Amino acid sequence: MSSEELQAIELLGRVRYGRLATSMRALPFLSVARHVVIDGHVVLRMHSGFGYHNACDGTVVAYGADNFDTAVPGGGGDLWAVQFTGTAEIVHPSPARRKLFGDGPARVNGEPFDPAYLGLEPHFVSVHTLGFDASQPIGNTA
């Protein structure tokens, strides 16, 4: 693995959720997913009720995660985002590997959560960081 891939996997381990992007019936979509890294592969858990896992099976997807909601610019840490692009396939993790995900939500859009799992073997990995000068004012402008 390249140093960028190792860095991306290390950063991915700092957050629990990310966004999966692909297309379904020629239209792009994003879906929230929980991730873990197992043997260098990104494994995703998502709600099966929408059928997104079926749309992703055997296709190229992008999975991204970041710390934009947890980092404090100028507070000693950079903002970062990672993206993994590769082919996804439906997987059936062992009970021990499913435990790595922790508890899932009780409901998704009012329906009981029914997990589906995708394995993603990254072909392309990117890491982007945003560094801020501590003296730079941070705030919203309206």
What does this structure look like?
- Helix content is 14%, strand content 46%.
- It has 3 helices and 8 strands.
- The protein has helices at 3-12, 52-56, 95-99; strands at 17-24, 27-38, 41-47, 60-66, 79-90, 107-108, 111-112, 115-130.
- The strands form 2 sheets. A 6-stranded antiparallel barrel has the order 1-2-3-8-5-4.
- Strand 2 (27-38) and strand 3 form a beta hairpin.
Write the layout of secondary structure elements.
Elements: H1 3-12, E1 17-24, E2 27-38, E3 41-47, H2 52-56, E4 60-66, E5 79-90, H3 95-99, E6 107-108, E7 111-112, E8 115-130
Antiparallel strand pairs: 1-2, 1-4, 2-3, 3-8, 4-5, 5-8, 6-7
Main sheet characteristics: 6 strands, antiparallel, barrel
Structural class: mainly beta
Overall radius of gyration = 16 Å
Q: How widely separated are the two ends?
A: 44 Å
Give average pLDDT, whole number: 89
Widest sheet, order of strands? 1-2-3-8-5-4
**Helical content band:** 10-25%
**Poorly predicted sequence stretches spanning 5 or more consecutive residues:** none
Task: For the structure shown, list the relevant keywords.
mainly beta; 6-stranded antiparallel barrel; Pnp Oxidase, Chain A; 142 residues
Summary, kept brief:
This protein has 142 residues and is mainly β. Helices cover 14% and strands 46% of the residues. Strands 1-2-3-8-5-4 form a 6-stranded antiparallel beta barrel.
